[in-house]
What we know:
Elements: E1 7-9, H1 13-25, E2 30-35, H2 42-46, E3 49-54, H3 65-75, E4 79-81, H4 91-99, E5 103-104, H5 109-116, H6 118-127, H7 143-153, E6 157-165, E7 168-173, H8 176-194, E8 199-203, E9 209-218, E10 223-235, E11 238-244, H9 251-268, E12 271-281, E13 284-291, H10 298-305, H11 309-317, E14 334-341, E15 353-354, E16 357-359, E17 366-370, E18 377-378, E19 385-393, H12 396-409, E20 411-413, H13 419-425, H14 429-432, H15 440-446
Parallel strand pairs: 1-2, 1-4, 2-3, 4-5
Antiparallel strand pairs: 6-7, 6-8, 9-10, 9-12, 10-11, 11-14, 12-13, 14-19, 15-18, 16-20, 17-19
Helix pairs in contact: 4-5, 7-8
Amino acid sequence: MALFHKILIANRGEIALRIQRACRELGIPTVAVHSTAxxxxxxxxxxxxxxxxxxxxxxxxxxxxxAILSAAAITGADAIHPGYGFLSENARFAEMxxxxxxxxIGPAPAHIRMMGDKIAAKTAMAGLDVPLxxxxxxxVADLAEARAVxxxxxxxxxxxxxxxGGGRGMKVAARDAEIEEAWxxxxxxxASAFGNDQVxxxxxxxxxxxxxxxxLADGHGNVVHFGERDCSLQRRHQKLLEEAGSPALxxxxxxxxxxxxxxxxxxxxxxxxxxxxFLYQDGQFAFIEMNTRLQVEHPVSxxxxxxxxxxxxxxxxxxxxxxxxxxxIRFSGHxxxxxxxxxxxxxxxxxxxxVKVFHPPGGPGxxxxxxxxxxxxxxxxxxxxxxxxxxxxxxxxxxxxRLARALDEFVIDGIKTTLPLHQRIVRDKEFVAGDYxxxxxxxxxxxx
Length: 448
């Protein structure tokens, strides 16, 4: 008997295709939703059914909750997978899905809401003995309090939006003379981007790595992790390349972090997939946020752990227990993912347009997740990610060699992409040595 009768995928592009493939292997029919701009998209072509839910604007289509719920109703879907982005971390959407008698393939709405508020998330994790970056105990009410917190933890400090993400509402103050301007700009950006001007303050770390831990939980106290991912290669807080595991961690550090995190989430009663993100410097981890959804970079964890995380999400949402423990998970080799964006590799300006040639690489240990095809027109309305190149090999040096070869084989013609940037990165001696922090890529790009 199928886990679900039919799953509606409330997303588009490569992640919609990724979920479709997992469903098909489980014998579950899928429904694709799409905007008018995506009528000929690959996720629409390959779904069992499709429903147009609005015009090109995401606000009127992929963020249109009534339209998505109506599509589920008219097609007889009994579950909705949100993918990542769009409504994936919208607690109200998850509540409405459940209120309509459907299953939301993701965490409980209460946990989505908790972790969507960065202050609430930090408070919860502190109570569960997860280490934090030194900072304010909650939202900072005024400039005087901001100055007092900064004086206590020491400059430089980072002022961050409580409801933020993607680097918006985030400003650094290196000294007292800069905090007033940073405070004002961070609050203004936070209000504009998130409708919430609350900010909090953290110690600014000068050379951290961004390390995250992938987890699955069944809501009954059983929680496992699938190793760490190093996501330090970022430009303006947007990840461009991720690897599993981290060149900076050994098995002992991974196991210690994993034990602490899985224990905390078991006490929280967490359910389904999640990723906890940390800054790592001088041998110390500091929690920064939790993403209550599937991550863009989930394939590298799948590669080293030998698990289909999307299928596991579906099973857990259907009420099945995990059925295995941490000791049953064996990590193998090293995996790296490159995010290929439809952007100019020098200016990073978006480059929508018609794809004339699409030739993905192949060979052992090479995976490409993409919804591109020759003749497809990349629309200007959505995120610029158009492909993910993932390689897996027995060791990191072998994975880098495989990635360099695969990048050289990869052809996307008709639009500019970030492929040339990735080709430069994988041949840089500091990257090859694993010697980089979250600030490395900004300097590397600036030197080109």
